[in-house]
Amino acid sequence: MSSAEIAVIWLTLKTALASTILTIPVAIWLGWILAHKRLPMKPLLESVISMPLVVPPVVTGYLLLLLLGRNSAIGSTMYNLFGIRFTFNFAALVLASLVVSLPLAVRSIRSAFEMVNPAYENVALTLGAAPGYAFFHVTLPLALPGIISGIVLSFARSLGEFGATITLAGNISGKTQTVALMIYSNMQIPSAEMQVARLVTFSILLSVGAMAASEWIAGKNRYIKR
Predict the structure, then answer these.
(1) Selection from 204, 171, 202, 206 nearest residue 1 by Cα
(2) If we measure between CA atoms, which residue out of 147, 148, 123, 146 comes closest to residue 134?
(3) I want to staple 31 with a disulfide (CB 3.0 to 4.6 A). Which of 37, 109, 184, 205 is the partner?
């Protein structure tokens, strides 16, 4: 592989890893709320969280651009006060990947929490444990295999993100060009077939490996529950 390909692969992995790390606490919080809380606007919350799964990724990227671009209230305030930009840079890559992959993590983690018998946490509470202690020492460990499966799914989705990324971060070579964007760019070049083939092979192997790991963890979780 060329140095440019290696750099793009490293940027893609770094983006997916950063996105997944940021996704973990948000997905656990949302998954627990959806699994155990009765909220008046719960269907609406579920719809908003799941929206990136059903709308075209370009639409998601466009909405993020409207929300966080330099001309938006949030984007202009963050840039004027702190010099922070959320578009056409590494932060944009991470944000696009996070928003698109979050629903997968939330759905998996919600299912994991729903499979945990609430009696275990109730017993801990009756024995004098604080709610936070009961959650982190009883509920969370029991749901951990499902949580890990959701995290792996989120990581795999981040690796292949294209539509929201190209809209919010652009396709800037050496700066915001990920594996998916490099494949797209090189498909327009007749002499770049081998480079495309190498990147496609890498993407398939990494994605299949991540999906296989997720299925293995989910299967192990189902076996433990039985």
Answers:
(1) 202
(2) 123
(3) 109
Amino acid at 179: V
Q: What is the pLDDT of residue 211?
A: 76
How far apart are alpha carbons 161 and 187 in whole angstroms?
Answer: 17
Q: Do residues 217 and 149 lie in contact, with contact meaning Cβ atoms separated by under 8 Å?
A: yes
Helix 90-114 vs helix 57-68: crossing angle, to nearest 10: 120
Structural domains in the chain?
3-57+91-225 (1.10.3720.10)
User: What b-and-e string marks burial along 122-145, b requiring 16 or more CB atoms within 10 Å of the CB?
Assistant: eebeeeebeeeebbeebbbebbeb
DSSP state of 191: G
**10-20 per-position pLDDT tens digit:** 999 999 999 99
Residues of the chain with pLDDT under 70: 217-226
Locate tokens 């719960």: which residue? 42
How far is it, in rounded angstroms, from Cα 31 to Cα 112? 9
